[in-house]
Design a protein that fits this description.
It comes from Candida albicans (strain SC5314 / ATCC MYA-2876). Its main location: nucleus. Belongs to the ING family. Pfam families: ING. This protein is mostly helical. It has a domain of 120 residues. The chain contains ten helices and two strands; from the N terminus they run ααααααααββαα. A two-stranded antiparallel sheet has the order 1-2. Helix 1 runs antiparallel to helix 3. It is flat, with a radius of gyration of 24 Å.
Amino acid sequence: MDTSTVLEKYTQDLSNLPLEVRHLLEEIKSKDVQVSEARKRYQTRDHQLHKFIRTNGTLTKHPKEDQLYSKIEEDMKLVQKLQKEKILLANTALFLISKHLYHFETDIAKLERDELLPPLEHPIELTEVSKDEYAKSLNGFSDSASATPTPRNGSSATPVAETVKKIQKKKLSVKGASSSSAQSSSASRQVKRLRSEEIEDPLPYEGGSLAFNGNVAMSINSAADANGPNGEDADNNLYCFCQRVSFGEMIGCDNEDCKYEWFHWSCVGITSPPKDDEIWYCPDCASKMEKRKKKRKN
């Protein structure tokens, strides 16, 4: 690796990053508008009920009380759903930026160690804090899809910090359990999941940049020292619609020609593992198959 290779690599890797982050921020803004509208609706209905009580007393029931309460509950659930989606989008942006920043800093450090790049007069050290924040962003990203909204308080530094207060114990994904990414995709897709009770105490994996223990935490220190910036055994392939690396729980599409192959549960709206004999197609493949069926009928 030399300086020109690193420059070319990161020029290419970062070319789409601004557009990706901009798209994520626009999605968050759009959901913010939906949240605001839903809040106005249930607050208006709540005001109607309180106004009726002030006028007629608590013993007289509003003629549309049940209907109003049902609508209020519906809008509140919608707000909770949208807030979870906003957290997921924010963590996606954090993950993308953190990933590129970490690999860039480690590559620069390697070039300086090999004396291919003169050190800066005031070098930006890859501190323990930045490593911990990078690990936290990855773990927090996996948790955010299933996390319940947490009220903000004065002690929270950022919204992301609120979502990662308590790291849940994750199941080892089928993708992560594969011995090699080069295994036959048709064989690996036959096993959709690996139940958590079968791996109650998985052994830590220390060969690559990701070290899995009971909490699927990232051991950045040992990975950077042992195998360099990227890790020899790490699976750096990109999967799913979000085009990110494998993490958390994933499901494989049963279409052998699927260009994405594996999907994060949160990205395809899955909350529980499929049955062993259940066939599952990703939304993209399912849509294409449906279009082909319609063409045949016509």
